[in-house]
C-alpha cells in the first residue's frame, strides 16, 4: 500500500515538473519570439478603428426608435456586432482585446445611449468584463492549485520519509 502511494506521489511530482517545464519553455519561447512576431499596439490607429465601429453602431442605433434604446432585446445584435468589431479591429492593429482604450470607448457609447436607462430596464451582462475576469481568474486558480499541490506533496514526502 505504501509503495503504491509512493508511486502515485512520484507520478504527481513528475506531472508537476513536466507541467512547470512545459510552461517555462512556452513562456520562454514567447519572450524570445515576441519582438520578432508581435508588432506593437498602435494606439492612435486603434482609437481611429474603434471610432469607426462606434459610427456603425450609432448608425444602427439611429434605425431603432429611441423609445426602445433601453430594451436590450431590440439592440442586442447591434451591440454584439459593435463588440465583435472592436475585437477584430484590436487584433488587426496588433492590440490585445479587451484593452483600456476600447473599454473607455465602450463606456462613452454606454453614456451616449444608455445613460437614461434605469438598472431595472437594462440588465448588463458585459462580455468584455466577463472575459477579462475569466482571463484573470484562470491563471490565479491554476497557480493556487499548483502551490497547494506542491505544499501537499512536500508534506506527504516529509511524512513518508
Ligand atoms: C500609428 O499609426 C499611425 C496612423 O496609421 C501612423 O501615422 C503612426 O506612425 C503609427 N505609429 C507607430 C508607432 O507605428
Ligand atoms: C422589450 O422588447 C420586447 C420585444 O418587443 C418586448 O417583448 C419586451 O416586453 C420589452 N421589454 C421591456 C422591458 O420593455
Ligand atoms: C436623456 O435625457 C435627457 C433629458 O431628458 C435628454 O436630453 C437626453 O437626450 C437623453 N439621452 C438619451 C440617450 O436618451
UniProtKB/TrEMBL annotation:
<dbReference type="Pfam" id="PF04901">
    <property type="entry name" value="RAMP"/>
</dbReference>
<dbReference type="GO" id="GO:0006886">
    <property type="term" value="P:intracellular protein transport"/>
</dbReference>
<dbReference type="GO" id="GO:0007186">
    <property type="term" value="P:G protein-coupled receptor signaling pathway"/>
</dbReference>
<keyword id="KW-0813">Transport</keyword>
<dbReference type="GO" id="GO:0031623">
    <property type="term" value="P:receptor internalization"/>
</dbReference>
<dbReference type="GO" id="GO:0008277">
    <property type="term" value="P:regulation of G protein-coupled receptor signaling pathway"/>
</dbReference>
<feature type="transmembrane region" description="Helical">
    <location>
        <begin position="132"/>
        <end position="153"/>
    </location>
</feature>
<keyword id="KW-0812">Transmembrane</keyword>
<keyword id="KW-0472">Membrane</keyword>
<keyword id="KW-0675">Receptor</keyword>
<dbReference type="InterPro" id="IPR038126">
    <property type="entry name" value="RAMP_sf"/>
</dbReference>
<dbReference type="GO" id="GO:0005886">
    <property type="term" value="C:plasma membrane"/>
</dbReference>
<keyword id="KW-1003">Cell membrane</keyword>
<dbReference type="GO" id="GO:0015026">
    <property type="term" value="F:coreceptor activity"/>
</dbReference>
<dbReference type="GO" id="GO:0032870">
    <property type="term" value="P:cellular response to hormone stimulus"/>
</dbReference>
<dbReference type="GO" id="GO:0072659">
    <property type="term" value="P:protein localization to plasma membrane"/>
</dbReference>
<protein>
    <recommendedName>
        <fullName>Receptor activity-modifying protein 3</fullName>
    </recommendedName>
</protein>
<dbReference type="GO" id="GO:0009986">
    <property type="term" value="C:cell surface"/>
</dbReference>
<feature type="signal peptide">
    <location>
        <begin position="1"/>
        <end position="28"/>
    </location>
</feature>
<dbReference type="InterPro" id="IPR006985">
    <property type="entry name" value="RAMP"/>
</dbReference>
<keyword id="KW-1133">Transmembrane helix</keyword>
<keyword id="KW-0325">Glycoprotein</keyword>
<dbReference type="GO" id="GO:0006816">
    <property type="term" value="P:calcium ion transport"/>
</dbReference>
<comment type="similarity">
    <text>Belongs to the RAMP family.</text>
</comment>
<keyword id="KW-0732">Signal</keyword>
<keyword id="KW-1015">Disulfide bond</keyword>
<dbReference type="GO" id="GO:0043235">
    <property type="term" value="C:receptor complex"/>
</dbReference>
